[in-house]
Amino acid sequence: MDARGLLKEHITKLASLTPAEFDYFFSHFKPLSFKKGQVIIREGDKVDNEYFVVSGCLKTFFINDDVKMHILQFAMPTWWASDYNALYTQTKATVNLDCITDVELLSLSNVDREKLCREIHQVEYFFRWRTNGGYVAAHKRLLSFMNNDAKTRYEELMKLYPLLYNLVPKHLIAAYLGVSRETLSRLYNSHKNVM
Amino acid sequence: MDARGLLKEHITKLASLTPAEFDYFFSHFKPLSFKKGQVIIREGDKVDNEYFVVSGCLKTFFINDDVKMHILQFAMPTWWASDYNALYTQTKATVNLDCITDVELLSLSNVDREKLCREIHQVEYFFRWRTNGGYVAAHKRLLSFMNNDAKTRYEELMKLYPLLYNLVPKHLIAAYLGVSRETLSRLYNSHKNVM
Question: How close B193 comes to chain A (CA, Å)?
């Protein structure tokens, strides 16, 4: 499916736009391509855009003082990615966004999102429910971190991104879960056995 | 300030409602009072409402298999509280909500929120930006949990709720931060010394 078709299908799951409204909405998105390893947002950057993933896989991450990488989020096709803290509060980026594979994206600016939300009520409805979903997902992840439960984190990750285990290098999955490579293998094998 | 005035001031920070729109909006809220220790949402409940805090302090929490309490959130005046996972996805509650002090609340049902969002575009705008704020706060907290950085979690908590240290029993603050009482005292003393 092309970028336009994918975005249309994605929006239609939540909101009802007329064909003319969708055309207008889509005209504010800018198609972008990046190569594996390219950096889209770097800590300290000004952040003006968010990205709808058309193909490929991204990660948002930060490196702590001990030079350990923590992965906040993966982004697969039909997911959105940015440093939302920086984007929403107009502060400098505190995380990085880069490409695990070659990717195609649709970029939407903060300014255009707000304009579209003002102009088309259903667009505002769409973005409200998109964020509601993200809020709930962030709280679920927080609960499993508070409970220090790597098994639940692993199972939630596989539910969110069933194809991830074969697509993404294992050290990145371990960095998302906050566990060692050895623990990841153990979780993978015990998960397989109950499937 | 009375409940109506507090809600009006809170909404006005983000959205512009006419006096007639605000009256209509406010007519969907139901005032409620609870005593210290009363439970508002219990794990396993169906959740139909969210709550705007007028006075007092609430906590959302869960107890893990080791009977250890984890606090997901405090809610002070002008904050909103519910089990948003259960409320938004119409599933059973996975956390509890109870009263740290006597509280006064304004209750809004899921059904009425959606109706108001459809009827008044500025109400949809308000709730979108309220959730955007919650999403960013949840991700910040997640980052500090991933980084296992109790000092940052403490400083973020004090920034969010400057009055909390004197209002809330110390063992609850420790349960929010995921640290012992002794670590909390150390963080409090080192924080005081740099103020």
Answer: 23
**pLDDT (tens digit per residue) in A39-62:** 999 999 999 999 999 999 999 999
Question: What ipTM goes with this model?
Answer: 0.91
Supply the range of the domain harboring residue B174. Answer: 147-195
CA pair distance B98, B82, nearest whole angstrom: 10
In angstroms, the Cα distances linking A138 to A144, A178, B143, B147, B172 are 10, 15, 11, 16, 22
The answer to whether residues A156 and A40 touch, using CB atoms and an 8 Å cutoff, is no
Structure tokens that stand for B51 in this block = 């709550």
Q: pLDDT, tens digit, for every residue of A99-155?
A: 999 999 999 999 999 999 999 999 999 999 999 999 999 998 888 888 777 888 888
Verify that B38 and B8 share a domain, yes or no: yes
Q: Looking at residue B79, which CATH number applies to its domain?
A: 2.60.120.10
Are the C-beta atoms of B80 and B130 separated by less than 8 Å? yes
Segment (H or E) for A125: helix A121-146
Helix (H) or strand (E) segment spanning residue A114: helix A110-119
Helix (H) or strand (E) holding B133, with range, is helix B121-146
Is A85 inside any structural domain? yes
Pairwise CB contact (< 8 Å): B72 & A138:
no
- Per the CB < 8 A criterion, the answer to whether B23 and B74 are in contact is no
Whether B85 and A140 lie within 8 Å, measured CB to CB: yes
